[in-house]
User: What shape does this take?
Amino acid sequence: MHQTSYMKDLTIDYALRATWQAVIKMYNEEAKGYGLTMAIGFTLLSIDPKKGTPSTALGPKMGMEATSLSRILKSIEERGYIQRKPNPKDGRGVLIHLTALGLEKRKDSKDVVLRFNEVVRENVSDEDLQGFFKTTEVINKLILEKKIYIKTTTN
Assistant: This one.
C-alpha cells in the first residue's frame, strides 16, 4: 500500500485518540435522542440482562475506576434503569439487575452500536478490518507485556 505524507506524519496514538474521540462524540449525540449518554449505554450493555452482574465485576469488565462507575450506577438507578439486589452467592455482594425500562434502554444502546458496526463493515474491506483488529491486538499485547516502556532501576 502506498503511504501518503499525511500518513507518515500521523502518530499511531494520535490516530487512535482522534478516532475514539470522534466515536464518543457520535455516540453521545446519538444517545441524546434516547435520553442517554455513551457512558450510560456502555454500562447498560455491560450488565447481564438475564442474571444481573455483580457490582464488583462491573468496573473491571468496563475498564473503569470504581468512583466513576458508582456515579453512573447512582445516576441510572435514579432514572429507574437498574435495581440493586443482594447477591445470593455472596451475602455482602450486590447484583445489578436491569429493570424493564433498563432493558428497553439497553436495547436502544445495542441497536446504536450494531448500526455503527454495520456501517463501518459496509465501508471497510474484510481484509482491512482484520488488519485493524490484528493491529489493536498487537498494541494491547505490547502494553500488557510491558514491552513498550521498560522500567529500569537507577541507584
